[in-house]
Please model this.
Amino acid sequence: MFTGIITGVGQILDVTALGDSAAHGSRLSVQAPAGYLDDVSLGDSIAINGACMTVVAFDVPTSVFHIDISAESLDKTAGLNQPGPVNLEKALRASDRLGGHIVSGHVDGIGIVSHFDRVGESHELRIVAPQALARFLAYKGSITVNGVSLTVNRVLDLPLKDPDAGCEISINLIPHTVENTSLHALQAGSRVNLEIDLMARYCERILSYRAQD
Model:
């Protein structure tokens, strides 16, 4: 489990195919901040851009760790198939503060950035979420974007002409978030990993189950 509070910004250095067919995944080499791996052990979980991954090898002196990502995970996520900056969060300890919200590290869908620009001292980030996730997104509800726990400020349901576009959400990013995550690199058209709020997932299941009675 995670909180969506980013503990470091890393860099994917290299993506190496684990086989020669589309069924094979890849091994990622990730450069973490200095000292980031001091308390990491083999097999530990680290969320990379919001996707929970297992450390399969690491080197403390260079702060580089490696993860294996399946073809299925590569197909269902964004930003993990090429070198570039990524948000990092180590798995939650039972004694840690829950500063964001409960995050599982399982990406539910990919959103498309429709707008990202400065508003006063902050930034407004607007994302078009797929139709399958639209019913889970609510005003002042929680959403995880590339692993970052954020609050939805506005939800605009989109016409049903496009089956892939469910709604557009608007999020305010304070300067600290922009400066201390990889979200500052986003622009219109960027693909981002989305995870819906865990409570919304269970509420939807409860309501849909009762509707069958």
